[in-house]
Amino acid sequence: MQWDLLEGPWELNKLYGWIMNAMKQDIRAITEHVPTKVFLSVLDYQIVIDFEDLHRLYCRQHLDVILITIWCL
């Protein structure tokens, strides 16, 4: 992971710091509103993003199609 922090894009480093600070404050997940136009859905819906899963994705320990889709939003 040290390589990611040193040579990765600054945006990833900022996201990593934000996730770690949130987890230290005992925040474990965030909920996000997804408008209908994102996935051409009939209804708006909300997604829950767990910080532990996002941290594993960041550290390249866990690849999940749903998490990668969320990352791209």
How many separate helices? 5
Molecular shape: globular
Compute the CA-based radius of gyration. Answer: 14 Å
Which percent bin holds the helix content? 55-70%
Structural class: alpha+beta
For the secondary structure, the number of strands is: 2
- How large a portion of the residues is in β-strands, by DSSP E? 15-25%
What are the segments in which pLDDT stays under 50 over at least 5 consecutive residues? none
User: Averaged pLDDT, please?
Assistant: 77
Characterize the largest beta sheet: strand count, sense, and whether it forms a barrel. 2 strands, antiparallel
Domains counted in the coordinates: how many?
Answer: 1
Identify the strand order in the major beta sheet: 1-2
> What is the chain-wise order of helices and strands?
HHEHEHH
How are the secondary structure elements laid out?
Layout lengths: L1 H6 L2 H15 L4 E6 L1 H4 L5 E6 H8 L6 H8 L1
Antiparallel strand pairs: 1-2
Helix pairs in contact: 2-4
Describe this structure in words.
The protein has one domain. The chain contains five helices and two strands. It has helices spanning 2-7, 10-24, 36-39, 51-58, 65-72, and strands spanning 29-34, 45-50. Helix 2 packs antiparallel against helix 4. The longest helix is centred in the first third of the chain and has 15 residues, at 10-24. The chain is globular, with a radius of gyration of 14 Å. The model has no long low-confidence stretch (mean pLDDT 77).
